[in-house]
Amino acid sequence: MLYRFRVIDRLPEKPSEAATRGTLVHAVLERLFDAPAAERTAPRARALIPGQWDRLRESRPELVELFADDADGERLARWLSEAERLVERWFTLEDPTRLEPAERELFVEAELASGLRLRGIIDRVDVAPTGEVRIVDYKTGKAPRPEYAEGALFQMKFYALVVWRLKRVVPRRLQLVYLGSGDVLTYDPVPADLERIERKLLALWEAIRLATETGDWRPRPTKLCGWCDHRAHCPEFGGTPPPYPLPLAPAAPSPQGRMGAD
Ligand code: SF4
Predict the structure, then answer these.
(1) Is residue 41 located within the same domain as residue 67?
(2) Is 18 within the bounds of a domain?
(3) Is the beta carbon of 262 within 6 A of some atom in ligand 1?
(4) Does residue 63's CB lie within 6 angstroms of at least one atom of ligand 1?
(5) Which neighbouring-strand residues pair with 110?
(6) For residue 163, is pLDDT > 70?
(7) Within this chain, do residues 114 and 199 fall inside the same structural domain, yes or no?
(8) Is 211 among the domain residues?
(9) Which amino acid residue places its CA nearest to atom 7 of ligand 1?
């Protein structure tokens, strides 16, 4: 249902403090590598925050509403100091003076044999002198409990699949850096993992395609619903979705049953 609201209905969403702080921290970590290795220190990273926040506001004027009611600037100051804390924590997890990323904020796109096109932006790609590739993603939230690690790795395996299809190299390591909790989650994929992800993506896309044609989208409530901007439209919360903007094909039951596409 969330996919429908975002992609098909294109309902607007309010900027959130947490997501915007994530964007700011990512920008700081990316820009820090512009400096020579020895100068990539925590104070330097902290000093980048105000300038990157100005740039972000210039490129996304809607962010102004985030702190519009913060007359004394107290909430903004707290928000900025939390960004500082996240940036500082990174230095306890990785040492940027010893890293020379091959790529930062790398846009990747690959087409699978089925014609399905995958694209994404990878926070950092490291390439060892041996040619081994490490894909790194920063998260400003906390690491998931071990039983939920698979979900967190899905995005990384997605990137690994795109890189594999694009460059014919299976990345040696996938690394998630959780600045919120100070954890690093790694996974070393093998081709069978990526083939499995490819099959999963094809099934997911088929479910999306079918739901797009029939308009049969369903809510899949999780605890993240609390942060969803679309509860007022979501049947799960007694809401009514807007009129469907696409022509509808008659719904037909899928042989495997429906997948929740949220
Ligand atoms: S409220 Fe929950 S179930 Fe409904 S669209 Fe948002 S995330 Fe999906």
Answers:
(1) yes
(2) yes
(3) yes
(4) no
(5) 118
(6) yes
(7) yes
(8) no
(9) 225
Which of 98, 128, 158 is at the close of a domain?
Answer: 98
Among residues 176, 185, 186, 181, the alpha carbon closest in space to that of 89 is found at 181
Look at residue 252 in the predicted model and tell me its pLDDT: 59
Single out the residue in 160, 182, 204 at which a domain terminates: 204
Domain that holds residue 33: 2-98
Residue 136 is assigned to a structural domain of this protein: yes
In short, whether 183's Cβ falls inside 6 Å of ligand 1 is no
Q: How far apart are CA 84 and CA 21, in angstroms?
A: 10
Q: What is the DSSP string of 72-137?
A: TSHHHHHHHHHHHHHHHHHHHH--GGG---SEEEEEEEEE-TTS-EEEEEEEEEEE-TT--EEEEE
Split into its structural domains, the chain has a count of: 2
Whether 71 maps to a domain, the answer reads: yes
CA dihedral 37, 127, 19, 189 (to 10 degrees): -150
Q: Which residue has the tokens 């060892």?
A: 128
Q: Are residues 125 and 110 in the same domain?
A: yes
Ligand 1 nearest-atom number relative to CA 220: 3
Reported as a single tens digit per residue, the pLDDT across 182-229 is: 999 999 999 999 999 999 999 999 999 999 999 999 999 999 999 999
User: Are residues 73 and 19 part of one domain?
Assistant: yes
pLDDT tens, residue by residue, 112-160:
999 999 999 999 999 999 999 999 999 999 999 988 889 889 999 999 9
Residue whose entry in the numeric block shows the structure tokens 């049969």 = 216
Tell me the per-residue pLDDT of 6-20, one tens digit each, with 9 for 90 and over: 999 999 999 999 999
Residue closest by Cα to atom 2 of ligand 1? 225
All residues at 6 or more sequence positions from 262 whose CB lies less than 8 Å from its CB, including other chains: 1, 2, 3, 219, 220, 222
